Every structure is written in C-alpha cells, then in structure tokens.
TrEMBL record:
This is Suppressor of IKBKE 1. Residues 115-142 form a coiled coil. Keywords: Coiled coil. It comes from Prunella himalayana. The keyword Coiled coil applies. Pfam families: SIKE. It comes from the Eukaryota. The keyword Phosphoprotein does not apply. Residues 1-20 are annotated as: Disordered.
Amino acid sequence: ASPRQGPGPAAERPDPSRLRPHVVLAQENTQIRDLQQENRELWVSLEEHQDALELIMSKYRKQMLQLLEGRKREEAEPVLKVHQANSGEIESQIDRICEMGEVMRKAVQVDDEQFFKVQEKLAQLELENKELRELLLISKESFEVGREDLPD
C-alpha cells in the first residue's frame, strides 16, 4: 500500500529510475524508428522539390532560347543578362538544396548508427540479465542444499 500522490507532473509520469531497462530501450527504439521514418519522408520531399526545380529550369531555358531566337541580337542583350542573373540565382538555390540533402543523408546515417548501438546494448543487457538469473538460481539451489544438510 503506497501513499497516494497528489495531482501534478510527478503523478502523471513514472519515475524514469523505476522503469525497467528494456522498457526505456523499447521507448528509445520507437523514437529512433519514428525519426528514421521522418528522415525518409523528408528525403523524398527534397527529391521531389529538386525534380520540380529542374523541370522549371528546363522550361525556363527553353522559353529563353525561343525568345532569343525570335528577337534581334540588340534587343536580346538585356534579356540575356536578366536570364544569366536568374540562372545564377536558381543554380545557387539548387546548390543549397543539394547541401541540405547531404546534411539529411548524414543525419540518417547518424540515426542508423545510433539505432544499431542501442540494439547492441540491448542484446548485451539481455545476455547479462540471463547470466545473472542463472547465477541467482545456482545460488538459491546451493543455499537450499546447505540448509538440508544441517541437523534439525
């Protein structure tokens, strides 16, 4: 019979020190899987944006070429300068998107490595737990045998 706790944050959340290690590891594994799924979704979104930008750029270039062919060289010079300026800006944006993609790729790799470390630690703790239970069983058995040998 434990005393009742009043309402408050401590009553809503269990004390982390009282949770079993496998419960904590299971919660961390779930969080890691959620982060990995979110990373995959972000990566797909980034690739879609890159594809859209490439499509827009190709259409823009095609229209600019058509415009340049239809005008005289003197009239096309200012348009060409604007086109070059816009192309440079769009290329810098594409470069930034590629950099973001590389950062996301590295984040996924780090998440994967962390997940494998947690899995390895969980397996190690399970093995250690099994060995400790076996030692405890042996200890109990030897204690019971020692009690049986004592005279009444």
